[in-house]
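Chapter review: from sequence to fold.
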Amino acid sequence: MESGGCIKFDLKAYDQRLHLALCGVSNERTLENFAWLANMAEERTAPPFLIASTLLVRGYVDEEEVRRIAGFIATLNTDIPYALLAFYPHFFMADLPTTSRNHALRCREAALKQGLKNIRVGNLHLLGSDY
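The token string follows.
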């Protein structure tokens, strides 16, 4: 709080099995830590103390997964900023397409329906039109 910095959590997936597939580890501790920090988010809103983001990976992170992540965040604090990030094929996932504009907009709508107030789509320059 004193530094004025923000803590950014990359919430890869809400589903335990999907998180294991993407990261090789459980997300249990990540979700616990995020919930613990969310309790402090109201102490400082500008700049936001806590920020969440999710990488939109075709075939893995779809509207349903974003809906579940956004629902989790919304139960803690609907004012926590949430960024949906376009994916760029690289490293182990070089065979996947970039996130499409339609995919990103559908995910944004899913997050809005969960009650989150501050949602943005990031990496706009990477968005494609493939699917």
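Two observations follow directly from the output. The mean pLDDT is 94. The chain has one domain: 7-126.
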